[in-house]
Every structure is written in structure tokens, then in C-alpha cells.
Amino acid sequence: MIWASVLLVGIGCYALKLGGLSVPQRLLDRAIVQRVAALIPVALLAALVAVQVLADGQRIVLDARLVALGAAAVMLALRLPFLVVVFGAAGVAAVLRLVGWLP
Amino acid sequence: MVVDSLGVGLATGAYGVSFGAVATASGLDVWQACVLSLVVFSGGSQFAFVGVVGAGGAPLAGALTGLLLGSRNAFYGIALAPTLRLRGWRRLFAAQVVIDESTAMAIGQLKDRPGDERRARVAFHLTGWTIFVAWNLMTLAGALAGNAMGDPRTYGLDAAVGAAFLALLWPRLTAWPQRVVALVGAAAATGLVPWTAAGVPVIAGGAVAVLVGLALGRRTVRA
Questions:
Q1: How far apart, in whole angstroms, are the C-alpha atoms of residue B79 and residue A25?
Q2: B205 in Cβ contact with A47 (< 8 Å)
Q3: Lowest mean pLDDT, pick from A70-84, B122-136, B195-209
Q4: Which of B132, B127, B143 is nearest to B17 (CA)?
Q5: CA-based nearest distance A41→chain B, Å
Q6: CB-based contact A58 B72, cutoff 8 Å
Q7: Strand ranges in A1-103 using DSSP code E only, listed in sequence order
């Protein structure tokens, strides 16, 4: 099932890229198409942030992940590079768990 | 322009190490992480897939989330097509590197020097393929390292995924409608967590936020 899904998302994402290069230009001119296209990444990424940080299975859990996300937001506001933000946040969570302040 | 393209390419490709590490931390094996980077080759979609799968969601829900995020590449393709003017097998190859950064570099060149399409094409291909090579090598490195580390929670790798999504989201929060949509998406998805199977909150919460965004836009137009 994992492999089938890996191939599905892979082939599907490639088809989307190739389709974009191949469709007629006038599709883009529809305002609603453009608006939905701009909104999808924002909506999905925000939902992914929330679920990734707060969910543990079907429970909402407040733990080191939330503090790490706050640290990531501060680092992003300081315009630090992507890798620093990602591994910096991991480091914050790791330290909080190591000293036993948060699970 | 060549230096800029290579610089953006190498810097972006380096993120691949975080994807590789996160993918194995989410329960994928090294092969699956590498095939995702080769075939999907779109950071947001790849992180979305492993994020949903790592949280215990159905792999198909992960694939659907990844596909929805990948839909933006279709719009990049539409915007790039008149400049790239690709035919036949060249289009089949170039399609794989239609991503955020290659599009931004090509469009940026066109804005700097309107009419110089050759320059924009070079920026697109150079950025895209530099990222492709670096991203895949770094994914392998990250996946091997992640595999060797043991429990990913000890190293906070579960927290790294949320940070990666936030870093991808951050540059898109330039105006209030986007920020409201982001807040609604996060709140709706969180609210759905206890009531739905893993994987569903992201897609359903995202859909609610898109609808709210469309309604917001309509009101702004009317006012």
C-alpha cells in the first residue's frame, strides 16, 4: 500500500507538471481558477502544520513539538535559512525532552 | 545569473537532507524516500506525504494531500509554457523540474530583462536540474543518517516536520486574506483530529479554508 501510494503521488505530481506545460493558455485566464490555485498551498500547509504539531493519532496533545514550532516561527521572522529553522526546531524539541521538561 | 541559479539550486537541494531524515523517521525505508524524491520531486508534496503517513494516516490520504499540494506546479507550467516553448521529449524531461524555485528564477529573469527569453530558459533549466541532482543526493544522505539514528523523537525529528511546513508556508503569508485562510485551515484541521481518521483533517480542513478564502475574496471585491 505504501509503494502503491508512493507511485501514485509521484506519477500524479509529474502529470500535473506536464499537464501545466501542455494545456491551452486560456484556462489560466479564469479568475476563479487562479484564486483557488493560490489558496490551496496556504490552506493545506497551514492544516499540515497544525496536525503535525498538535495531533497524536486522534488526540490533541500539547508537547515539545508546539514549543519547537514557536522557535521555528521566531527563526523564520529572523529570516534564518530553511535548514537552520528545521534542524533548529528539532534541536529545541530534543533538548526539552532530554532535560525532561516536556514529553 | 548562472551563479544565482547554481546558488539557489544548491541551497534548495540541501533541504533534501531534512526530507530524507524526516521520511525515514516517519516509517518509510530508504528506497521509498529516494523514489519519492526522484519521482515526486516537489518538496511540499513529499513532506505532506510522509507527514500524513508518519501520523498514522492511510497512505492513500497522504498521496491525495501530496497531489493537492502538487497542483500548484501545474499553474507554474501554464505560466512558463510560452517562455520555455518546449516540444516532444524535451517537454517530457523539463516537466519534472517545474517547481517553486525554477519557476521563480525564470519569472524573475523575465521581470529583470523583459523579452530576453533565452536567459529565462537558462535560469529555469540550470536552477531546476541543479536542485534535482542535489535534492536526490541529499535525500539519500538524510535517509541513511535517519535510519542509523534510532528513535526519531529523541532528536526532535517529529517536531522538524511541523517546522518544515511552517517554513514552506511563511513566504506565502504576505497579506491578510492568506493569513486568515491559514488560520482557518489550521483551526479546522485541529478541530477535526478527534473526530476523523488520520489524514482526513488535513484535506478537509484545507478544503474549508479554501472555501473561506473564496468567500473573503468575493466580499473584498464587493466592498
A1: 8
A2: yes
A3: B195-209
A4: B143
A5: 6
A6: no
A7: 55-56, 59-60
B48-88 tens-digit pLDDT: 999 999 988 899 999 999 999 999 899 889 889 988 999 89
Q: Percentage of chain B surpassing pLDDT 70?
A: 98
* DSSP states of B19-51: HHHHHHHTT--HHHHHHIIIII--HHHHHHHHH
What is the C-alpha to C-alpha distance for residues B14 and B138, in angstroms, rounded to an integer? 6
Q: Residue A56: helix, strand or coil by DSSP? A: strand
- Asked if B23 and B50 touch (Cβ cutoff 8 Å), the reply is yes
Cell of B180: 486568515
Of A12, A43, A86, which is closest to B185 when you measure between CB atoms? Answer: A43
Q: Do A35 and B173 touch (CB under 8 A)?
A: no
**What residue spans define the domains of chain A?**
26-98
Q: Cα separation of A60 and A36, whole Å?
A: 29
Q: In chain B, what residues touch A85 (CB-CB under 8 Å)?
A: 163, 166-167
CB contact under 8 A, A41 and B44: yes
Q: What percent of chain A lies above the pLDDT cut of 70?
A: 95
Residues in chain B with CB shorter than 8 Å from the CB of A47 are: 185-186, 188-189, 201-203, 205-206, 209
Q: What is the C-alpha end-to-end distance of chain B, expressed in Å?
A: 43
Residues of B in Cβ contact (< 8 Å) with A61: none
Q: Give, in degrees to the nearest 5, the angle at Cα B171 between B23 and A78.
A: 90
Block residue for cell numbers 505532506: B48
Averaged pLDDT, B127-148: 95
Measured distance CA(B65)–CA(B61) in Å, rounded: 6
Burial class (CB in 10 A: 0-12, 13-18, 19+), B138: buried
